[in-house]
């Protein structure tokens, strides 16, 4: 089943504004049990889909005991887009990060926002699914339309100019709230952080235990506090071993232990909110663009990711490209053009400049398939777990709350 996010109603873009309203006392979201709190930590567990958690509840007794509900991620259901909506409080059509690989006007290759460099460009840490810079990597990808290529995208595509609106963290700091972001050190000054997660202080964490300690210390700062803590290992495990693997279940136990440690030490006026950026599916069938000529004909660039591709066509060929992709992929994929995707409000309200970075054609997996690129993206193509599409398994995320 497909779930289109209803921006403004229980999506990740609504979460931090609601938290800020609760901590300031200006606006209490009725669906969140945050009345009377002065300190809130939002702990984002990368890759913790609501369906996956429900299926492995016995491995997560703490999480399963917390009150809460199910919210939706963004479209696409991918880390860069979801974190951008979380940090800015805006839907993708407003903040402009519309995929794992996002087209940028004036460049001949898509940008990887998690590394803030052009896809296929050397340099920086290579990331798994690239949690703003993970470990073993998804790939670079060459090709595309003509344009400039920069070896230092941070200087030519300045993150604070790419997304100039104040983040929720900046708004909270301006309101006198102690804001702390707890995450691995490589995220401190990353392009994605500077664009959509900037504001307040940064506390680098080096392990699960360190994240717990730093989170609790940050919660006790000042008269009022907002903490954002980020954990990536569950997502990494899901990509490499699959979200149905024993390894994923064991990693979930580690996450549950970490959550229990924070909950047991919450200050009296504090709450912990646990959520995720997306879920994940085990991929069973792959269609390879690099060995399927019909999928390359009249195509100038491919962005997005295997379960949610943005396809750019040469001028005048978009309709033909869309028809070839429909015929080749069949009913296991939903193939639409840009106008239809915008009209269906997959990205929320879309600014004209952002609309031009959405593919002429979008191809979404409905089942367990993926559109891979074995030549351009060999590592990513071999991963067992993927996300990005609009299926419930990918878009539905938990929203769990514990009070002291």
Could you name the ranges where pLDDT drops below 50 across 5 or more consecutive residues?
A: 123-137, 139-151
Query: Pairing-aware structural class of the strands and helices?
Result: alpha/beta
CATH architecture name of the largest domain: 3-Layer(aba) Sandwich
CATH topology of the largest domain: Alkaline Phosphatase, subunit A
Work out the number of β strands. 17
Biased composition (Gly residues): 121-146
Pfam families: Phosphodiest (PF01663)
InterPro entries: Alkaline_phosphatase_core_sf, Phosphodiest/P_Trfase
Region (Disordered): 112-150
Question: Tags for this entry?
Answer:
404 residues, alpha/beta, Alkaline Phosphatase, subunit A, Gyrase A, domain 2, 2 domains, seven-stranded mixed beta sheet, four-stranded antiparallel beta sheet, 17 helices, 32% helix
In terms of topology, how is this protein built?
Elements: H1 12-24, E1 39-45, H2 50-55, H3 61-65, E2 67-72, H4 79-88, H5 92-95, E3 111-112, E4 117-118, H6 153-156, H7 159-162, H8 168-174, E5 178-183, H9 191-196, E6 201-204, H10 208-219, E7 225-231, H11 233-241, H12 246-263, E8 270-275, E9 281-282, E10 285-288, E11 299-305, E12 308-313, H13 318-329, E13 333-337, H14 338-343, H15 352-355, E14 361-365, E15 369-372, H16 378-382, E16 385-386, H17 392-395, E17 396-403
Parallel strand pairs: 1-7, 1-8, 5-6, 5-7, 10-15
Antiparallel strand pairs: 2-17, 3-4, 8-17, 9-16, 11-12, 12-14, 13-14
């Amino acid at each position: 089943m497909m779930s289109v996010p209803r921006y403004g109603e229980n999506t990740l873009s609504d979460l931090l504004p609601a938290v800020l309203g609760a901590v300031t006392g200006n606006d209490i979201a009725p669906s969140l049990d945050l009345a009377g709190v002065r300190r809130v930590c939002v702990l984002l567990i990368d890759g913790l889909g609501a369906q996956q958690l429900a299926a492995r509840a016995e491995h997560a007794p703490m999480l399963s005991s917390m009150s809460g509900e199910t919210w939706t991620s963004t479209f696409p259901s991918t880390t860069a887009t979801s974190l951008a909506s979380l940090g800015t409080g805006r839907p993708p059509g407003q903040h402009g990060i519309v995929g794992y690989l996002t087209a940028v006007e004036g460049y001949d290759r898509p940008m990887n926002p998690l590394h803030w460099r052009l896809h296929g460009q050397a340099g920086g840490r290579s990331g798994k699914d690239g949690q703003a810079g993970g470990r073993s990597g998804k790939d670079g990808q060459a090709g595309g339309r003509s344009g400039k290529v920069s070896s230092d995208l941070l200087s030519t595509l300045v993150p604070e100019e790419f997304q100039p609106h104040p983040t929720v963290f900046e708004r909270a700091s301006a309101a006198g709230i102690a804001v702390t972001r707890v995450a691995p050190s490589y995220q401190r000054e990353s392009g994605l952080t500077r664009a959509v997660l900037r504001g307040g202080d940064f506390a680098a964490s080096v392990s699960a235990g360190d994240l717990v300690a730093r989170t609790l210390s940050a919660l006790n700062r000042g008269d009022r506090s907002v903490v954002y803590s980020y954990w990536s290992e569950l997502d990494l495990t899901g990509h490499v071993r699959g979200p149905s693997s024993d390894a994923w279940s064991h990693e979930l136990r580690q996450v549950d232990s970490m959550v229990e440690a924070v909950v047991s030490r919450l200050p009296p006026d504090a709450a912990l909110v646990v959520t995720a950026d997306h879920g994940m599916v085990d991929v069973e069938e792959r269609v390879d663009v690099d060995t399927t000529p019909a999928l390359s004909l009249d195509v100038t660039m491919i962005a997005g990711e295997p379960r949610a591709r943005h396809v750019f066509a040469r001028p005048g060929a978009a309709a033909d490209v869309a028809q070839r992709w429909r015929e080749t992929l069949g009913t296991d994929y939903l193939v639409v053009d840009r106008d239809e995707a915008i009209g269906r409000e997959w990205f929320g309200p879309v600014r004209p400049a952002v609309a031009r970075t959405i593919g002429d054609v979008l191809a979404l997996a409905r089942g367990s398939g993926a559109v891979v690129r074995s030549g351009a993206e060999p590592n990513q193509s071999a991963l067992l777990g993927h996300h990005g599409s609009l299926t419930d398994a990918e878009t539905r995320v938990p929203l769990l709350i514990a009070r002291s």
